[in-house]
Amino acid sequence: MYTGYQYTIKREYKNTNEWRCRRRPCTISLSLCRNNISVIREPGDHTCTPPSPKKRFVEEAISRMKKRANEETNSPNILPGNYKNSC
């Protein structure tokens, strides 16, 4: 999420990553440094409307859940039996 809009990865270059607006047919893109921390090129004016605050909240929550699920399934320290003991 950046300036109220969501982006998806378009291309990965040697030193930068190119992201495009998640809403089609909007063609706006933004460039970030390779580790996606700083903006190299700001996006232009979007042709789409930004998502509502409620929709953004839901999409951000889903994104956090997906990220956590991916991190937990890729971690060698977490075994299925460990979930029984965590409750």
Topology at a glance:
Layout lengths: L6 E6 L3 E6 L7 E5 L5 E3 L11 H22 L5 H6 L2
Antiparallel strand pairs: 1-2, 2-3, 3-4
Structure description:
The chain has 87 residues and is an alpha+beta fold. The protein has one domain. Helix content is 32%, strand content 23%. The protein has a four-stranded antiparallel β-sheet with strand order 1-2-3-4, with no helix packed on it. The longest helix is centred in the last third of the chain and has 22 residues. The chain is flat. It starts with 6 loop residues before the first strand and ends with a helix.
| Main sheet overview | 4 strands, antiparallel
Helix content: 25-40%
- Measure the end-to-end span: 33 Å
Number of helices: 2
Rounded radius of gyration (Å): 17 Å
Given the C-alpha coordinates, what overall shape results? Answer: flat
Strand residue percentage: 15-25%
Q: Report the structural category.
A: alpha+beta
Average predicted local confidence, pLDDT: 80
Low-confidence stretches: none
Strand order of the largest sheet: 1-2-3-4
Q: How many domain units?
A: 1
Order of helices and strands: EEEEHH
Secondary structure: number of strands: 4
